Amino acid sequence: MPERNDDEQGRIDVAAIVKAEVELARKYFEKGNYEAARLFFRNALAIEGLADDDASSKRANHLLNMIKRSEKSARTVQKQCPRCGGSGKQEVKLSALEGASSEKKGFMGAKNSSKKVPGKTCDRCRGNGKVSGIGKMIDLKFQAAREDKAFREHQQARKYEPVGNAWVPQDLVNSLDVKEKAKLMRGVVTPCSKCAGFGRIDCKDCKGEGRVKCDNRECINGRVPLEDGDSTVTRMQGKASKRCRECLGRGSLLCEDCDGDATVLCKYCEGSGESEKCRKCSGRGYIECRRCGGSMEYKGKECTYCRTEGVSICTSCNGEGHKQ
Q1: 200 bridge partner residues
Q2: What is the pLDDT of residues 253-266, one digit of tens each?
Q3: Which end of the chain is more exposed for a tag (fewer CB within 10 A), N or C?
Q4: Range of the domain at 224
């Protein structure tokens, strides 16, 4: 538990609390658990908003950068290589000319027979069979929900208390006034229910893959049959097919709806990951006291409803500054 700073007349040392959160976040980040790291960095940033020392701005910028790095890493996953199908090898068709009386004869009265065999190392995945890409949002939402549950359980084990979606030591909770509580809660807003705070959702056209099947009807896995107009040299090589010009042999095309990103902007939050700002409190999270109207006095006495603060937590957004 962070100790009190005597120089601040009994106030909790906010910087020490932030430091403890950052240390936990870094441990998760180094282990590759980027979503858990993001949650702790985000909590640290919310608490940092209560600090007023000279180094606070520098710490806040660092935390913002780490949140972005964690989120980007959490979204990046290893996918099966679309070119080699995960084998790490490019498929090659071996063809041979066989004399036959088939109606579908090729060049010089012969028909083509071919089979696929593993060829050289795939130039896209370099033999790994996997490529980096953006994970499907439906999977990321599941992962985010699971890590959020683990995060809350961890904070409870530390004897931390929730203030909205932020978690802080009990001593700090007791020292906060209404405006400080609202500021803390605004730092960890409940994410958009549609995109789980990512600001994007899976593209429906490509189903979160970023690519769609080649629109050339004759294309099969990036290859198309030879045509009568193909050169004699090409036909004499015994090839049964050639590379599709539409997809350049990939068998798929970039999705036009998402431009290959696999996701599209969430229309409910317009990419912010948060719900609309609360109109009642204008996004502040607090409103004037209903009883004293902000004067801190009621019928000639101190207002007990707001405890002479003149404000109270917004009843519409519960202090988050955004619609629930």
Answers
A1: 265
A2: 989 988 888 889 99
A3: C
A4: 89-128+211-254
